[in-house]
Amino acid sequence: MPEWPPTGRDALLARAREYARTVDIDVDPDALSWEVSERAKRRAGACRYDPATGEVTIRLARRAADAFSWNEFARVVRHELVHAWEYREFGEAGHGPRFRAQADRLDVTTTCPTFAAARLRLRCTDPACDWRADRHRAAATVTEPERRRCGRCGSRYEVEHVASGETWRTAAGYRGARERIEEW
Ligand SMILES: [Zn+2]
Ligand SMILES: [Zn+2]
Question: What is the whole-number distance in angstroms between the Cα of residue 156 and the centre of ligand 2?
Answer without folding.
Answer: 7
